[in-house]
Write a structure and sequence with these properties.
The chain is α+β, with helices and mostly antiparallel strands. It is 59% helix and 11% strand. The protein contains 23 helices and 24 strands. Helix 5 runs antiparallel to helix 19, helix 6 (304-389) runs antiparallel to helix 18 (728-799) and helix 21 (951-966) packs parallel to helix 22. The longest helix has 97 residues, at 206-302. The chain starts with 52 loop residues before the first strand and ends with a helix.
């Protein structure tokens, strides 16, 4: 270990765990039990800034039992082997200053930070303040997962602690100030906007971030006001334009209204004039009234005879209607009798027709019988002639017997062939069923694979696009290329997927696996550089690890509840399995049950396994480099997301082979069926030929006998036909007699029908006469009634003596003085005004109402718009003032950061710059800090992203940016944990020199730099504070550790050694 000037590292005869104090002249009391470390500190010159950490105390926290650390005011370098407890100090700082557990990236519950086996833990942070140091204590209860807070030993709440910490400008959630080990990679993932916000909070003046937020709020309100003004202006213009369109209609409406008002006045005056005229006529009407009364009396006396005559007419009408009803009844009865007679006559006609039709049928049957007799006699003659010409029958029986034997043999062969065809068909049906079953299984496998691909597409679209490209371009690669590990892994039981997903990082789960470095470079160039896809790729080991045996047999571990190694839980292609065994030792990591968790202490002590899985937890076991002491940590298993879908590729390949075998068998069966069908067809043809020959021979043998039988049969038929004779003349005579009898009956019926028709006609004539008489009576009655009604009407008119009330000579209202005084003049003026008013057509009163309402709205909207514009101008003026107070200092700040950042990169023979980036100056929420770097002279400056630069390049860029912030920083301290792990030795040395030079300057904030290793011959500063963390079983108890005595002994040894 390199030792800076004026500082000494304390060698220990046995490995131990402690940090060296900063002040050699004073002892910081610390306690230790159960090999927990003790952290003494070396001295560092320079004052503490407001909010710096003066003391860190931990009890039952992670790896510590009891420990107290007193850092220096400048650079504090915490050095120690992995697992000794360096990052535990970082966790204590975060949690002690009210940070959230999830920010550390280790666990989401604060109870997990308490040392295993303890029920309570404690972290205490002492912060420097000029007015008096601030001591913050956080006690953690594991059972309740709850924290209790104290400030200067007095109970308080977390909110008050957060306020006190914020007042000192401490931001443990700001990656520019507090960068824990598990968050180093996330710094490069910060967007430009997030980086600007973190930088403002970290090094900007207190009001800078407030101005930025105020600007964003003002700009948002300005946009809202601009939109509102624009909408109101457009709406106002539309309202004005619409009123302009209706203005002429409104004027015409009011012109029409003036005419209508004059018409109303004229119509109001006209009754006054009419009244005067009527009053003058009143006297004349009184004289007429007496004369009319006399006329009424005479009319009433003349109406009495007319009334009597009307009553006589009404009685006569009733008598005639009764007689008409009687005649109608008689007519109805006569009509029914006529209809009955007509029905009987029709039945007689139908009977005659049936007799004639039966006679025709018998005549036709006789003609047909004579024809059939002639045909039968001719057929008998022909058959007798054929019988005479037929030769004697040969002896054909031997030939028939031979053909019969051949037919029997062919039938047997056909039956055998048909049986084989049926067997082949059954075999084919069986194969088709097997094929369908295998196809269904393959489809189900493909559906499961599609589910896995859908999950990949939803979560990692770039990786999914790269998979599609790979499937279309496999010919570009020389050796085997495996798709992302999450697609190629198939769990034997999806319940175990959580173990694999918790063991293998997601970056590797979506990584492509290559067997050749050249193939991987081709793939990354095409996919990552050309297509700009963010993908991961790894190379499988040259020698396969897939079948490498575990160091311990599983049978030895079953007693602890282990049931399998990780490797046996899934299937994967050989390159993938080999890579996982090499990289993640899945063949060495066992998986246990709840029984394992119950015996975990015994398992850890006896098995010495590095990683263990129980039912719901993962245990990581480390052995101290110095003391061989076992240190374990556990985390809860996350729920599986990607590997829950199980696809057995081996079974799928077996199904594909089975499908090929089924296809081969089907082809063989089809070939056999074709051959059997040809054989069957040939046998069928031969069978038909033999049957035809046999048929011809049998016909020749039986022809004579058949002819004799036919002749005998025909003679019998002829005899029967000759016997079945019919006397047509007798039948005709009988039919004629019956028809004559029916005609006599029909004539009698016609006579009766004629008489009934005459009676019915007579009744109709009588009914018509009665109707005519009734019509005449009704006509006379109606005439009398009409005359009576006219006389009654005249009487009523005469009785109505006009009565006019007595008039009074009132003067006309003053409004009527300018209007005409006669009815003719008034009517003439009314006609003229009505004509003028009628010219104004198409006018709607609602238009005037809407016009008036819009005028009021326009006036109101104009006032509102003026107010909005005044408010908008005020906002713009405020934005301009706040922008000037925010942007100018920010630009100066970014320029300073850029100057220091560029100098740091220049000193490393690289290039880097920091600038303030925005696409629109008015979009204050889009401002951001852009970091661009290049590490090779042949390349251009590229923006720092999680994908373009390597891990080491990102670490260097992150560290140099934090260094650029160091001298400008207004935060009291900065923490960087193991950022040098991904750097090469050259960059690590350069970065370390920059850290020392920057963090040890005057007026800089406190700096914590945590690292597990250091290069040799590094430069150191006297202002540094180096804290060594030791771990071992022979650590001294705190009450026996004396730093001063140790330093004196060390000096004596140094002085007494010969030069």
């Amino acid at each position: 270990m390199a030792t800076p000037s004026k500082k000494t590292s304390t060698p220990s005869p046995q490995p131990s765990k402690r940090a060296l104090p900063r002040d050699p002249s004073s002892e910081v009391p610390s306690k230790r039990k159960n090999s927990a470390p003790q952290l003494p500190l070396l001295q560092s010159s320079g004052p503490f800034v407001e909010g710096s950490i003066v003391r860190i105390s931990m009890e039952n926290f992670l790896t510590y039992d009891i420990c107290e650390v007193s850092p220096g005011p400048h650079l504090n370098m915490i050095v120690g082997a992995n697992g000794t407890g360096k990052s535990s100090i970082v966790c204590a700082i975060c949690l002690g200053l009210a940070g959230k557990p999830a920010f550390m990236g280790r666990a989401d519950k604060v109870g997990f930070f308490v040392k295993r086996g303890c029920s309570r833990g404690m972290v205490e942070i002492e912060l420097f303040r000029a007015s008096g140091n601030l001591v913050i204590t956080r006690e953690i209860d594991v059972a309740k997962n709850q924290s209790f807070w104290f400030i200067n030993k007095k109970s308080t709440t977390q909110k008050i602690v957060e306020e006190k910490v914020a007042a000192l400008n401490i931001q443990v959630g700001n990656l520019c100030q507090f960068l824990p080990q598990d968050k180093v990679g996330e710094f490069a993932k910060l967007s430009k906007i997030e980086l600007l916000e973190a930088t403002e909070k970290s090094i900007g003046p207190p009001e800078m971030h407030k101005y930025h937020c105020e600007l964003k709020n003002l700009r948002e309100k300005e946009k809202q006001l601009e939109t509102s003004c624009k909408e109101k202006t457009e709406y106002l213009q539309k309202m004005v334009q619409r009123n302009e369109r209706y203005k002429q209609d409104v004027e015409r409406f009011y012109e029409r209204k003036r005419h209508l008002d004059l018409i109303e006045m004229l119509e109001a005056k006209r009754p006054w004039v009419e009244y005067e005229n009527v009053r003058q006529e009143y006297e004349e009407v009184k004289l007429v009234r007496d004369r009319v009364k006399e006329e009424v009396r005479k009319l009433k006396e003349g109406q009495i005879p007319v009334t009597c005559r009307i009553e006589e007419m009404e009685n006569e009408r009733h008598n005639l209607e009764a007689r008409i009803k009687e005649k109608a009844t008689d007519i109805k009865e006569a009509s029914q009798k006529c209809k009955q007679k007509q029905d009987v006559i029709e039945r007689k006609d139908k009977h005659i027709e049936e007799l004639q039709q039966a006679l025709i049928v018998k005549q036709n049957e006789e003609l047909d019988r004579q024809r059939r007799i002639g045909n039968t006699r001719k057929m008998i003659e022909d058959l007798q002639n054929e019988l005479k010409t037929t030769e004697n029958c040969e002896n054909l029986q031997p030939q028939i017997d031979a053909i019969t034997n051949d037919l029997r043999r062919i039938q047997d062969e056909k039956a055998l062939c048909e049986g084989e065809i049926i067997d082949k068909r059954r075999e084919r049906e069986t194969l088709e069923k097997e094929k369908k079953s295998v196809d269904d299984h393959i489809v189900r496998f493909d559906n499961l694979m599609n589910q896995k691909e859908d999950k990949l597409r939803q979560r990692f679209r770039d990786t999914y696009d790269a998979v599609l490209w790979l499937r279309n371009n496999r010919d570009k690669f020389k050796q085997r290329v495996c798709e992302p590990i999450m697609l190629t892994i198939n769990m034997k039981d999806n319940k175990n997927a959580k173990y694999i997903e918790n063991h293998i990082p997601s970056n590797d789960l979506r990584a492509f696996v290559f067997e050749s470095q050249e193939d991987m470079e081709v793939f990354l160039k095409e996919v990552r550089d050309n297509k700009k896809l963010r993908v991961n790729a790894v190379i499988a080991p040259k020698s396969s690890y897939a079948d490498k045996a575990p160091s311990r047999s599983l049978n030895e571990l079953k007693q602890y509840g282990f049931f399998s190694y990780l490797r046996e839980l899934f299937d994967a292609p050989d390159p993938v399995m080999s890579y996982l065994c090499c990289q993640y030792h899945i063949h060495e990591v066992p998986v246990g049950t709840e029984k394992t968790r119950e015996r975990i202490e015994r398992v850890i002590q006896e098995t010495r396994l590095k990683q263990i899985y129980t039912a719901e937890e993962k245990y990581v076991v480390k052995t101290s480099f110095y003391s061989n002491k076992v240190i374990s940590s556990n985390t809860s298993l996350k729920v599986a997301q990607f590997l829950t879908v199980t696809v057995d590729l081996e079974q799928r390949r077996h199904l594909e082979e089975q499908l090929k075998e089924i296809h081969r068998k089907l082809q063989a069966v089809d070939s056999g069926l074709i051959a059997l069908r040809e054989t069957s067809k040939h046998l069928e043809h031969k069978d038909n030929e033999l049957r035809q020959k046999k048929k011809e021979l049998l016909e020749r043998k039986t022809k004579k006998r058949q002819l004799e039988q036919k002749i005998s049969s025909k003679l019998g038929s002829l005899k029967l036909m000759e016997q079945d004779t019919c006397n047509l003349e007798e039948e005709e005579r009988k039919a004629s007699t019956k028809i004559k009898e029916i005609n006599v009956q029909k004539a009698k019926l016609v006579t009766e029908l004629t008489n009934l028709i005459k009676i019915c006609t007579s009744l109709h004539i009588q009914k018509v006469d009665l109707i005519l008489q009734n019509t005449t009576v009704i006509s006379e009655k109606n005439k009398l009634e009409s005359d009576y009604m006219a006389a009654s009407s005249q009487l009523r008119l005469t009785e109505q003596v006009p009565t006019i009330p007595n008039g009074h000579n009132s003067s006309l209202p003053m409004v009527f003085q300018d209007l005409p005084n006669t009815l003719d003049e008034i009517d003439a003026l009314l006609t003229e005004e009505r004509s003028r008013a009628s010219c104004f057509t198409g006018l709607n009163p609602t238009i005037v109402q809407e016009y008036t309402k819009r005028e009021e709205e326009i006036e109101q909207l104009t006032e509102e718009l003026k107010g909005k514009k005044v408010e908008l101008d005020q906002y713009r003026e405020n934005i301009s003032q706040v922008k000037e107070r925010w942007l100018n200092p920010l630009k100066e700040l970014v320029e300073k950061i850029n100057e220091k950042f560029s100098n740091f990169f220049s000193s490393m023979q690289c290039a880097g710059e920091v600038d303030l980036h925005t696409e629109n100056e008015e979009d204050y929420d889009k401002y951001g800090i852009r970091i661009r770097v290049k590490f090779r002279s042949s390349t251009q400056l590229h923006e720092l992203t999680p994908h373009h630069q390597s891990g080491g390049e990102r670490s260097v860029s992150t560290m140099l940016y934090l260094m650029a912030l160091q001298e400008l920083n207004r935060c009291p301290f900065r923490v960087v944990d193991e950022i040098n792990q991904g750097m090469d030795p050259i960059n690590e040395r350069r970065v370390f020199e920059m850290v020392v030079n920057t963090a040890c300057k005057e007026n800089t904030s406190q700096y914590f730099f945590i690292t597990p290793k250091l290069l040799q011959n590094l430069p150191y500063s006297e202002k540094m504070t180096v804290l060594f963390v030791y771990n071992g079983p022979h650590m001294l108890e705190p009450n026996t550790w004396n730093l001063k005595a140790f330093q004196r002994r060390r000096r004596r040894i140094t002085f007494t050694q010969p030069s």
